[in-house]
Amino acid sequence: MGRPPCCDKSNVKRGLWTPEEDAKILAYVVNHGTGNWTLVPKKAGLNRCGKSCRLRWTNYLRPDLKHDGFTPQEEELIINLHGAIGSRWSIIAKRLPGRTDNDVKNYWNTKLRKKLMKMGIDPVTHKPVSQVLSDLGSISGLPNTTTNQISTVEHTQEGQVPSWEHHIPYQVIINSENIQSHVLSEAASSTSSSSSSNITQLGSPQSYSCQTPQAQIAPPCSSFDWSEFLQSDSFNWSLNPSSGIIQSEAELSNNAKSNGNDMQGGASEGSGSGAVACGASMEYQINKQCEAHSFVDGILDRDSEIRAAFPELLDASFDC
DNA sequence: AATATCCGCAACCGCTCCGAC
DNA sequence: CGTCGGAGCGGTTGCGGATAT
User: Fold this and answer.
1) Are A82 and A179 in contact (CB under 8 A)?
2) DSSP designation for A208
């Protein structure tokens, strides 16, 4: 036996909302606030499901919502966050003032996903499509693929790092996997009793600087709470509502404090120190170090370099 | 001008989470 | 500890406007 429906669907109105209905919800919320949504339709005089009322309020009527188009900064933040945490729209939306999870989700599905695909980037993994195909080939037992071959090269040329590793601004994946690694590291250190961790530890902080991330990253442990992580100091990107610039919370706070002081080169210019701390400031440093290139350019550059370096390998993976 | 197709967005659905009891 | 029910989330659908043919 399943759960009973939240309301009698045959007796409630569905579909688009009329201005009159909107006015009723607004009037109700102004007078009573948002509380028990199941009671709202009755109290507000609406023949709607309570759930539908809540959705209408949170996605459309809330006074703090923005109804204009997404800015390039918001777009970049969405892509970065999606690369880091996937389709956790509500968490992503919390980083975008005035946007709802539905807005972000729709924008991703209708614009950003297609945009990335057009650029040859897989919107799920945020990796070049060619690399994803290569990885698929390797999973399905096809001959060694680009990725595998590269790791072979790295091993045979001990101590040498392929040239593309030195400077490629591969923002999305760096963000994504560094964050996951950081999370995993935190999880490992916080659970002192669990020594049997399968966590892949990354190297020292200086090794993060604009390098291609480690290939094998263990999935996050199931008990991990992304929401908590994103709200913690460990992960603190956000969009400055006034400047439209993606900043760390610390910088947002500093900017607020130092209003009127010398700006030292603008909002995105911070410490200037070479030291890269762990956690979010590290992510942010990476972003800053890499900002000469867009993340898309970085991915495509890397893809091109791989193709140029190992032209025969991609073809091989398609020889079925 | 009429029709077909595409696209964006609002809304719905089914599920999980979580607190109250 | 188990159950119930409200809230919230992510995926999907369907409508209406825009654009192409």
Assistant:
1) no
2) G
Longest dimension (CA), chain A: 74
The residue written with tokens 């499901």 in the block is A49
Residues within 7 Å (Cβ) of strand B: A 2-3, 9, 14-17, 48-49, 51-52, 55-56, 59-60, 67, 69, 102-103, 105-107, 109-111, 114
For the record, the structure tokens of A34 come out as: 């948002």
CATH match of A1-63 with 3.40.50.300: no
In the three-class reduction of DSSP (H, G, I as helix; E, B as strand; rest coil), residue A121 is classed as strand
Phi-psi region of A239 (alpha: psi -120 to 50; beta: other; left: phi over 0): beta
DSSP single-letter state for residue A246? E
The Å distance, CA of A81 to C1' of B11, is: 25
* Chain segment A185-216, per-residue pLDDT in tens: 333 333 333 333 332 332 232 333 333 333 33
CA distances for A63 relative to A16, A30, A99, A216, angstroms: 19, 11, 11, 45
Identify the residue whose tokens are 């188009």.
Answer: A69
Tell me, yes or no, if the pTM score tops 0.70.
no
Domain ranges of chain A: 1-63, 161-258+265-296
CA distance A87 to A84: 9
Distance CA A214, CA A234 (A): 20
Give the Cα separation of A90 and A200 in Å (integer): 28
Percent share of chain A, pLDDT over 90: 0
Task: Using the CB atoms, write b or e for A105-126: b if 16+ within 10 Å.
Answer: bebbeeebbeebeeebbbbebb
pLDDT in tens, A5-45: 566 766 788 888 888 888 888 888 888 887 788 888 888 88
E strand segments, chain A:
237-239, 246-248
